[in-house]
């Protein structure tokens, strides 16, 4: 998620100069028309999505460690006149322990009409935002759950004081379209899900909407057809993703395409009213090039952007979700969200106490790009953030132990970014940038936590960094104030 900051006028002016000098790269294609079909690609092995779910230490009421979701197949239909979403869901899951029931997250507004396990109809209960499925579940055994449901989607309150994300989850816009940003949770507002970051799964998402609306989701567009006044799009995510990284958008979208220098296919999903913002998005190929030089090859098969009526930006896996505020399509924001495809999406925190693992590195990379591209003095961006870091820590708590009602606030962006710069100065540039490049590959497609991360860093550097990380992540007083 993008940080909420006030950009200085000097930085904005530097960005404008860089863009005028040709900072952007790539070229967009013509809006898509007709039927889109890609060649048949074998489905991945769902065993690759086997996870070790844990009860989240910050938001324990969401998600269930007894469920290991392997594959979600969602068949969705949207009726804007009644604001009704209908879903047919097939979930392949693994029971992590012997149990007489399994629990998923499903909003109270989404009403189940039929639930079956391995072909047998069961009487599930739906207390609040939970779906409780009875049965005789064996440890480490897989089951197929099928669910029919429907209702009027509604976002839920976000555990944060951020004004740009006061509500999270599936939202109906003024024109009858849909969009979602759902960090740290909120996927449950539109499908039954183990809505926690420690449980990654594969996704197939089909979206049926009235034309000229189009449904957009994560991954590859494997099929598109229009018949009897309705358009269906079918999307496949070929790598496992945490639920907060899944997206859905419905609107009068058109597709434009581009490609990075290394051949990463890039798609832009915008409406006819988004002309100026589309021009901003077309800077993406150059940003991918810059990040690949730092982090190695882009980790997924495709990259996309979809514009929605929100007020923020979200690193939804392979299909980044961006609000229509011009700040949300500025190049530093785009760079930040693309960086998350390595830090956050490819390797994901297993517990929300470690959101700093995502945001700190994305912020550090954003600062390095800003200084280099905008011709700022080295470290200028970090110096600006250093001014605010002590205050953000006092307000929201230390980055590794923040207040639960202050999710994704500046303390988990600025402090960890400054921490990474302190580590760079400790181990040297060459060692540091090798660490930055190697970590996502070392834990690719996994969810993991700080203990694993810090142990790996100490092994790679040969240094005892315990006190260093304790001070930066857990101390109530900023290291900058000492």
TrEMBL record:
Leader sequence residues: 1-20
Catalytic activity: Release of an N-terminal amino acid, Xaa-|-Yaa- from a peptide, amide or arylamide. Xaa is preferably Ala, but may be most amino acids including Pro (slow action). When a terminal hydrophobic residue is followed by a prolyl residue, the two may be released as an intact Xaa-Pro dipeptide
Superkingdom of origin organism: Bacteria
The protein's Enzyme Commission number: 3.4.11.2
A GO biological process held by the record: proteolysis
Segments forming domain Aminopeptidase N-like N-terminal: 70-245
Gene Ontology cellular-component terms listed: cytoplasm; extracellular space; membrane
InterPro entries named in the record: Aminopeptidase_N-like_N (IPR045357), Aminopeptidase_N-like_N_sf (IPR042097), Peptidase_M1 (IPR001930), Peptidase_M1_aminopeptidases (IPR050344), Peptidase_M1_dom (IPR014782), Peptidase_M4/M1_CTD_sf (IPR027268)
Pfam family, one: Peptidase_M1
Entry's family note: Belongs to the peptidase M1 family.
Protein name per the record: Aminopeptidase N
Species the sequence originates in: Nocardioides terrae
């Amino acid at each position: 998620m993008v940080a909420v900051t006030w950009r200085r006028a000097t930085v904005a002016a530097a960005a404008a100069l860089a863009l005028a000098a040709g900072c952007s790269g790539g070229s967009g294609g013509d809006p898509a028309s007709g039927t889109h079909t890609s060649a048949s690609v074998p489905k991945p092995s769902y065993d690759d999505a086997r996870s070790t779910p844990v009860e989240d230490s910050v938001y324990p009421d969401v998600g269930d460690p007894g469920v290991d979701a392997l594959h979600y197949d969602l068949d969705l239909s949207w009726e804007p006149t009644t604001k009704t979403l209908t879903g047919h869901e097939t979930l392949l899951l693994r029971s992590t322990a012997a149990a007489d029931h399994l629990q998923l997250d499903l909003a109270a507004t989404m009403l189940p009409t039929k639930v079956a396990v391995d072909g047998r109809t069961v009487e599930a209960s739906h207390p609040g935002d939970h779906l409780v499925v009875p049965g005789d579940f064996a440890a480490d055994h897989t089951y197929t759950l099928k669910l029919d449901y429907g209702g009027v989607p509604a976002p839920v309150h976000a555990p944060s004081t951020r004004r740009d994300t006061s509500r999270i989850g599936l939202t109906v816009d003024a024109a009858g379209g849909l969009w979602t940003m759902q960090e740290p949770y909120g996927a449950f507002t539109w499908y039954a899900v183990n809505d926690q970051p420690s449980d990654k799964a594969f996704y197939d998402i089909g979206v049926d909407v009235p034309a000229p609306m189009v449904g957009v989701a994560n991954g590859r567009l494997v099929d598109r057809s229009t018949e009897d006044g309705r358009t269906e799009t079918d999307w496949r995510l070929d790598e496992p993703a945490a639920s907060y990284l899944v997206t859905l958008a419905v609107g009068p979208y058109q597709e434009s395409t581009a490609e990075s220098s290394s051949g990463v296919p890039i798609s832009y999903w915008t409406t006819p009213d988004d002309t100026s913002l589309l021009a901003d998005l077309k800077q993406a190929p150059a940003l991918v090039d810059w990040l690949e030089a730092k982090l190695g090859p882009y980790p997924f098969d495709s990259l996309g952007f979809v514009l929605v009526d929100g007020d923020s930006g979200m690193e939804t896996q392979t299909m980044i979700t961006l609000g229509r505020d011009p700040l949300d399509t500025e190049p530093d924001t785009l760079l930040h969200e693309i960086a998350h495809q390595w830090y956050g999406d490819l390797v994901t925190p297993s517990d929300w106490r470690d959101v700093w693992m995502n945001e700190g590195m994305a912020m550090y990379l954003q600062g390095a790009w800003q200084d280099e591209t905008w011709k700022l003095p080295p470290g200028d961006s970090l110096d600006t953030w250093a001014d605010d870091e002590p205050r953000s820590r006092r307000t929201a708590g230390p980055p590794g132990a923040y207040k639960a009602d202050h999710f994704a606030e500046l303390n988990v962006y600025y402090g960890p970014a400054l921490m990474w710069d302190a580590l760079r100065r400790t181990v040297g540039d060459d060692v540091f940038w090798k660490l930055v490049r190697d970590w996502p590959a070392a834990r690719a497609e996994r969810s993991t936590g700080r203990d694993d991360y810090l142990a790996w860093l100490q092994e790679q550097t040969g240094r005892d960094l315990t006190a260093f990380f304790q001070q930066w992540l857990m101390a109530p007083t900023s290291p900058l104030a000492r």
